[in-house]
TrEMBL record, chain A:
Protein name: DNA-directed RNA polymerase subunit RPC12/RpoP
Keyword Transcription: yes
Species classification: Bacteria, Bacillati, Bacillota, Bacilli, Bacillales
Superkingdom of the organism of origin: Bacteria
UniProt entry keywords in alphabetical sequence: DNA-directed RNA polymerase, Transcription
GO cellular component: DNA-directed RNA polymerase complex
Species in which this protein is naturally found: Cytobacillus eiseniae
TrEMBL record, chain B:
Protein name: TPM domain-containing protein
InterPro entries: TPM_dom (IPR007621)
Transmembrane regions: 179-199
Residue ranges with Gly residues bias: 244-254
Compositional bias (Polar residues): 232-243
TPM domain boundaries: 39-159
Keywords per UniProt: Membrane, Transmembrane, Transmembrane helix
Length: 342, 266
C-alpha cells in the first residue's frame, strides 16, 4: 500500500522530510506532523505486486484479488476467460468491513431462508441446488452529507363548533418557517455496475462500527470488484437516497397543523466527505427449473435478498384461504350486526 | 411434478367454498292453517295465471318468515280512506300466517285515488317498521306508476321477505350485508395480501433515516410560527327531520291491532 498525503493548503503531494521528521509540501512549504495529519486527506493506492486485477472477456466485469490468489473464472458469469493485469497505482479502498459469516454458515443461512419462503415452490425450499456461492467485496462509496434546509409554509388550524342553529368552521392561518441543519453519515451507494442497485439497497444496514482500515490480506480467499463509478458520479444517487429522509424530517417539524402548504423549500446538500469502501456480500447462484436465480447475502448480518421463484399453487392456496377466511369474517360481522348469515 | 398437490389444494379450496355456501337455514313448516289466500285482486289488474304465480310465490315466502305477504287491489273505497280500509280489512278477514290476526304484511293500492299503502302487523310491525316499508314502497312505486302491477307485487313480496331476515333497527340496504360486496372485499383483501407477500419475498429495505442521521449535529436552528389571520364560515345545522313524501306511518285498527305503515301515491 502506498500512502499519499495531500497538502491541506495547496493540494499538491506532501513528502516526508527526514530532517525534521515531518511532512513537508514542496510547493507551498507547509509542514505537518504525521500524527496530527487529518486522516481524510490520506489516499492509498496499491503498490506493485500487491494485488491483481482481472478483466472478464465475456461480461466485462473487473475483479481484484490479492496477489497470491489467481482467478480462473469470472464470479459473475462463470466464464473462464479472465485476463490478469497489474493493479499498481490504482486507488485502493480506504476501509473494509470484513466477512464474519463463513461459507458454511452462509450456505446454512441461505437454506434456512429458503425454507421460510411462504410462496416458494417446494422443490426450491430444499435449497439443494446451490450452483455456486462466492464471497465478494462489493465497492461502495460512503457519503457524509450535510443538508441545509429552509422551509417556509402556510399552515392552518381548523376548529369546528356549534352555536345555536349554525355550525361554525374557524380556520387560523400561520406563517411557519424552519431553518434546519441535517447531517447524514455513511450513506452507502454501490459503485458496481454489475450489481443491481435495488438489490444492494435492500442489503443494508451494515454495521459501520466494524469498518477497518483496508489492508490487502482482507482480500485473501475472496474476490473484490473494482469500482465502476467515482464518488462524483454517485453523489446524485446519494442525495436521492436521503431526499425522502429530509422530507419526512421537515414534516416532523411541522406538526399540530391541519394542513401544510409549502411556499418555499430550499435544500442544499453538500458532500462533506466520501470514501471508497469494500462491503462483504455472499453471492448465491441457484439453479431451479433450468433457470438461474441470483441472491445476495449481507456478509455481516446474514440478510438475504433476491427474487425467489413463486409457486402458483401456493399463491392460489393462500389467495383462496385468505379470501374464504375474510368472507367468513365478513359474514360473521354481518350476522352480529343483525344482517343474517346469508 | 406437483399435479397431485395442486389437485389436493383445489379440492380443499372447493370444500371451503361448499361449506360456506351450503344453506343451513332450511326451516320446516307446514302450510298455514289460517292463511289460504294472499292476493285479493278486486280491481282485476292481474290475469289468472299471474294471480296463481303470485299466490304460490307468496305462500312459499310467507312460510319461511311465518308471515303472510298479502296484496289487495281496489278500484275505489266508497269514500273510505286507505288506512282505515286496510285496518278494517285486517279486523274483518283476520289474516295472519301463524294464527287469525297474526303476522301479516299487506300491500294495498287504490286505482281511483292512486294511493298505495303498506302495513305490517304483529311480527311484521317490528321487522317491517315504517322506515323499511318506506324503502319497499320507494322500490315499487315506479313499477306501479307504469302499470307493471305483476312486477311490482312480486318485487314487494321478495323485498319484504328479504328485509324480514334482518334484525329490527338495522338498515337492510346497508352495503355490508350485500353478498357481492362481501365477496368483492374478501377477494380484494386476499389479492392485496398475496401481492404484498410476493413483493416482499425478495427482501425489503429495512433502513430508515435513523440509521444514518447524526443526531448530534442535526436539528432545527431557527423557527417561527406567526399567526396571520383567520376565517370563519357558518353553515346551517342539517335538520334531523328527513321524513318526506307520503309517510303516514302506522296506527291502531278499530279492533285494537297496532301496525306499522308507509303511505304514498303512484
Amino acid at each position: 500500500m502506498i500512502l499519499h498525503y495531500k497538502c491541506p493548503s495547496c493540494g499538491s503531494d506532501m513528502s516526508f522530510d527526514s530532517e525534521s521528521g515531518e511532512l513537508a509540501c514542496d510547493s507551498c512549504g507547509r509542514q505537518d506532523k504525521i500524527e496530527s495529519y487529518p486522516e481524510d486527506l490520506i489516499t492509498t493506492t496499491f503498490s506493485e505486486d500487491e494485488a491483481k486485477e482481472y478483466h472478464c472477456e465475456n461480461c466485462g466485469a473487473v475483479l481484484i484479488t490479492e496477489a497470491e490468489t489467481t482467478a480462473t473464472s469470472c464470479s459473475f458469469c462463470g466464464a473462464g476467460v479472465v485476463i490478469a493485469d497489474r493493479l499498481s497505482g490504482h486507488l485502493a479502498p480506504a476501509k473494509v468491513i470484513p466477512f464474519t459469516i463463513s461459507k458454511e454458515e452462509a450456505t446454512k443461512a441461505f437454506q434456512k431462508w429458503c425454507r421460510k419462503g411462504l410462496l416458494t415452490p417446494k422443490g426450491f425450499m430444499n435449497a439443494d441446488r446451490i450452483k455456486s456461492i462466492t464471497g465478494m467485496y462489493v465497492p461502495f462509496w460512503l457519503f457524509d452529507l450535510n443538508s441545509k434546509v429552509q422551509v417556509n409554509a402556510v399552515c392552518t388550524k381548523v376548529r369546528m363548533y356549534t352555536r345555536g342553529e349554525y355550525i361554525y368552521t374557524e380556520t387560523k392561518y400561520y406563517d411557519a418557517f424552519r431553518d434546519i441543519n441535517l447531517d447524514y453519515v455513511k450513506i452507502p451507494v454501490d459503485a458496481s455496475e454489475k450489481m443491481n442497485d435495488g438489490l444492494m439497497d435492500k442489503l443494508e444496514p451494515y454495521p459501520y462500527d466494524q469498518l477497518k482500515n483496508f489492508k490487502t490480506p482482507y482480500l485473501a480467499g475472496y474476490i473484490a470488484e473494482k469500482y465502476n463509478y467515482t464518488d462524483e458520479e454517485l453523489l446524485p444517487r446519494a442525495k436521492d437516497k436521503i431526499s425522502g429522509y429530509i422530507d419526512s424530517y421537515i414534516r416532523s417539524t411541522l406538526t399540530g397543523y391541519h394542513s401544510v402548504n409549502y411556499k418555499e423549500k430550499t435544500i442544499d446538500t453538500r458532500n462533506v466527505n466520501s470514501y471508497y469502501v469494500l462491503l462483504p456480500v455472499w453471492m448465491v447462484i441457484y439453479d431451479y427449473n433450468q433457470s438461474e436465480h441470483t441472491f445476495a447475502m449481507n456478509g455481516q448480518t446474514g440478510k438475504v435478498v433476491g427474487k425467489p421463484p413463486i409457486s402458483s399453487g401456493k399463491v392460489s392456496m393462500w389467495f383462496g384461504g385468505i379470501a374464504a377466511g375474510s368472507l367468513l369474517a365478513l359474514k360473521c360481522a354481518s350476522y352480529f350486526l343483525g344482517g343474517g348469515f346469508w | 411434478m406437483s399435479g397431485g398437490k395442486i389437485k389436493k389444494q383445489s379440492l380443499f379450496f372447493l370444500l371451503t367454498i361448499f361449506i360456506l355456501f351450503v344453506p343451513w337455514g332450511i326451516s320446516v313448516n307446514a302450510d298455514s292453517m289460517n292463511q289460504k289466500q294472499y292476493i285479493y285482486d278486486y280491481a282485476e289488474l292481474l290475469s289468472e295465471t299471474e294471480v296463481e304465480e303470485l299466490e304460490s310465490l307468496s305462500s312459499e315466502l310467507s312460510e319461511q318468515m311465518n308471515t303472510a305477504f298479502m296484496v289487495i287491489t281496489v278500484n275505489g273505497m266508497d269514500g273510505k280512506d286507505i288506512i282505515p280500509y286496510v285496518q278494517d280489512f285486517y279486523d274483518e278477514h283476520a289474516p295472519g300466517y301463524d294464527q287469525p290476526h297474526g303476522n301479516t304484511s299487506i300491500l294495498t293500492i287504490d286505482l281511483q285515488t292512486r294511493d298505495v299503502y303498506l302495513a305490517g302487523f304483529k311480527k311484521a310491525e317490528q321487522y317491517l317498521d315504517d322506515a323499511r316499508l318506506d324503502m319497499v314502497r320507494n322500490k315499487i312505486t315506479p313499477d306501479l306508476s307504469q302499470g307493471n302491477y305483476f312486477q311490482a307485487f312480486s318485487v314487494y313480496i321478495h323485498t319484504a321477505h328479504d328485509y324480514m331476515g334482518f334484525k329490527p333497527g338495522v338498515n337492510p340496504e346497508n352495503i355490508l350485508f350485500k353478498w357481492w360486496f362481501q365477496l368483492a372485499v374478501s377477494l380484494i383483501v386476499a389479492g392485496i395480501i398475496v401481492a404484498l407477500m410476493a413483493y416482499r419475498s425478495g427482501g425489503r429495505v429495512t433502513v430508515s433515516a435513523q440509521n444514518y442521521m447524526n443526531n448530534n449535529q442535526s436539528g432545527i436552528l431557527n423557527k417561527y410560527d406567526n399567526y396571520i389571520r383567520q376565517t370563519v364560515t357558518k353553515q346551517k345545522k342539517p335538520s334531523s327531520n328527513t321524513k318526506s313524501g307520503g309517510g303516514g306511518g302506522g296506527g291502531i285498527s278499530r279492533g285494537g291491532h297496532s301496525h306499522s305503515g308507509s303511505r304514498g301515491k303512484f
